[in-house]
Design brief:
Two copies of one chain form a homodimer.
Chain A: H1 2-13, H2 20-26, H3 41-64, H4 69-86, H5 88-95, H6 103-121, H7 127-149, H8 159-175
The first copy, chain A, binds a DNA duplex (30 and 30 nucleotides) through loops.
DNA sequence: GGGGTTGGCTAATGCTGTTAGCCTCTGGCT
DNA sequence: AGCCAGAGGCTAACAGCATTAGCCAACCCC
């Protein structure tokens, strides 16, 4: 419950802005009392990160269910972007790379990627090519939403259209087979 | 000079790891002495960010000079990725979005994007389509390098190849005109 | 009804950013 | 030569945050 409150707080003040004091105040409790529930600020961040990864994976899976091919990719990409814009703090948390020996965090980080793999399987992509395609889509989607959510697109050109262009371009590229 | 030392330090301990104490120690000076050169930690971070953005823009421009079309895009993308891997702390600094009223930082942030625009002009892309293309390439390159530099690509598949695939796919998409 | 667990609290510590106030060196002006 | 202003260092002190220690009330189970 404390971690869940931390995730909500992160969306309001930014992931980096989450502090023990702020979270305690939000919960109507004194700061040291939180240590009965989380080991440390670092552990809290890890918890928010893992929870957010699972929430994201669930959202993505729901968006893509019952679709296939380019349709599924667009649904995936759209759901991802909407989720990032709605949950800036959680999104920052999902970007946090797990420690190399943290099984639970590694599993959580793999969940959203797995959804993408399942979609690409419906494209007839296999093995190395499926990995390349998943990396390409993931990179593009993450990069675009990351820049957008931090206000990095200065020009006035419609952002929705640019996003669709990016996804369409990649789908086109995936469909024209390459060596 | 202090900012330059800060940038070097960021590459060693991470942008978030840069502290006044650590930087002072690195410069053989006591912590409060730094305040004769920078206003605050926040100002130091801003300085590192602006310097890094200029360095990146210069590197990208040098890589693309004398090339055009797909060749220039590959040179740009390759130089970007190499720079990120060589300068993890500086890279994190360049991702930091400027304050909306910070003219100098805004200008610095625009410099790398401008290089990309110049390259795309050689593709015959104009106006809205050029903006879409620049955003697509920028998003993809930023996303890929961001994930790679934080160790986010778990699978053993060769990362160089995946990167080339991503760039090739986008170039292909850019060349086949879309509505 | 007693005892352990849960979950709160105050007090205190350490680390980091920051400010105040002081001192020394240096370089140009008279 | 003497002066003096500014640059750049220092120590001491303070504030905010994470964290720990130690204490206490409520609740639950037997």
């Amino acid at each position: 419950m404390v971690v869940a409150a931390g995730a909500d707080l992160a969306d309001e003040v930014g992931f980096a802005g989450v502090s023990m004091g702020l979270l305690a105040e939000r919960l109507g409790v004194r700061t040291p009392s939180l240590y009965k529930h989380v080991d440390s600020l670092e552990a809290l961040r890890r918890g928010i990160s893992i929870q957010s990864k699972h929430e994201l994976a669930g959202t993505l899976a729901r968006a893509a269910v019952g679709r296939s091919g380019p349709d599924a990719v667009h649904a995936f990409a759209g759901a991802y972007r909407r989720w990032v814009l709605d949950h800036p703090g959680r999104h920052t948390a999902t970007v946090r790379a797990p420690a190399p020996d943290d099984e639970e965090d590694l599993a959580a980080a793999g969940a959203p990627v797995q959804v993408l793999f399942d979609i690409l399987a419906g494209f007839g992509l296999r093995d190395a090519r499926a990995i390349d395609a998943a990396r390409a889509l993931r990179s593009a989607i993450h990069g675009f939403t990351d820049i957008e959510s931090s206000g990095g697109f200065g020009l006035p050109r419609n952002i929705d259209r640019s996003y669709r262009f990016l996804i369409d371009t990649l789908i086109t590229g995936l469909q024209t087979d390459q060596p």
